[in-house]
Amino acid sequence: MSLAPSSQQQNRGKKKEEESDSFMRLPDKEIAGCISDIGVPFTAADLLKPNPLQIQMIFEWFAELLTNTTRDTVDPAMRAASEDICEDYPDIVPAETRNLMGFYVSLRKLLFECGITDFSFQDLYKPTHDRLVKIFSYIINFVRFRESQTQVIDEHFNKAETTKVRIETLYMENQEMESRLDELKRNRKAMEVHIAEKVKRNEELKRRLLELRQSQDRMARRFEGLTKKKKEMTAILEEKTAATIELRQESSKLQPYVSQSPAALQASLTELSNALNADKSQIDAFDRRARALQTSTDTFTVVYADVVSCTKLLDEISIELAKEEDENIKVARQQDALGERTNNVREVERTRPYYIGNYPNGLSEQKN
Fold first, then answer.
1. Which one-letter DSSP state was computed for residue 126?
2. In Å, how far are 32, 64, 88, 272, 319 from 314, measured between CA atoms?
């Protein structure tokens, strides 16, 4: 039950295709006449017994008429594709086969637009009468429709031509850029070799520079050691020079004695010995005198200390005497005052009986 609807739909689809094919199909004579009109000699007998080469030529004529596509026009693109895919083996696919395959793709697109959706390579190499009638009928009907839409087709054709020119220009530019790219690659390889040499040379120079730096460090350390040694040798030389100068001076001093005779030298030695003894005795006398002076100095120091202490004592005594004189003066003054008061008391005592006798009642009154 489930297969019945699908089979019915398939039958309906086949009937519709047969109806459209019967509607689109043209008579053999009409097809042959239309093909002859485009410039290819063709008869109904040729349609009944098709020749593959002739059929391919007719398809190429239709493709050139409708899309301006031939085997020659697809050759650059197919050659570029072959070079990209089979770069190492460019001759593995012959040029005719390659161009035919490219033309087949373009023709298949054209026939798909005409309504032929099942076009295959079999239609080019082993065409049949029924298939050719169908294909040519669809193409002729498409051409007739195209003639009615000439303005639109021309517009799109001009765009296609512009695009084609642009494609060719871009292809040429691509070829030029590829050549430039190849040249740049070659230059890059040459530069890489040159750079590798420079890098190698640079590494060698770095190693050489490192060795020179190490050698410089060693030379610097050696130079420092030699500088220190030079200073030491200079100091030793200066010491030896000073010693030499001293020896020369002593030698110059001794030179007169060396030039004299032994007797004169003996006399000089005797004189020097006598002078030395005299100097020694004088030194001893000076030493004794110095000791005596030192003893006197010590004595003077002791005496000076005693004198200073006596001076201090005298100062203290003078101060005490001054104080005592002040006290004596005060005592004398007090004695004078006491004497005056004593005299006054005596006078009062002498005059008291007189006053008592003359004024007897006075005292009693005063007492009362």
1. S
2. 180, 163, 143, 60, 8
Domains located in the chain, CATH noted: 19-174 (1.10.418.60)
By the 8 A CB rule, do 44 and 32 touch?
yes
Residues written for the chain: 368
Degrees to nearest 5, angle at CA 207 with 201 and 211: 140
Q: Which two tokens stand for residue 212?
A: 């020179």
Longest dimension (CA), the chain: 225
Cβ density class 57-88: b for 16+ within 10 Å, e for less: ebbbebbeebbebebebbeeebeeebeeeeee
Taking only the tens place, the pLDDT of each residue in 125-172 is: 888 888 888 888 888 887 887 777 778 777 877 888 899 899 999 999
In sequence order, which residues have a C-beta less than 8 Å from that of residue 125 and are 6 or more positions away? 52
pTM more than 0.85: no
Handedness of CA 240, 241, 247, 251 (dihedral sign): positive
DSSP letters of 268-299?
A: HHHHHHHHHHHHHHHHHHHHHHHHHHHHHHHH
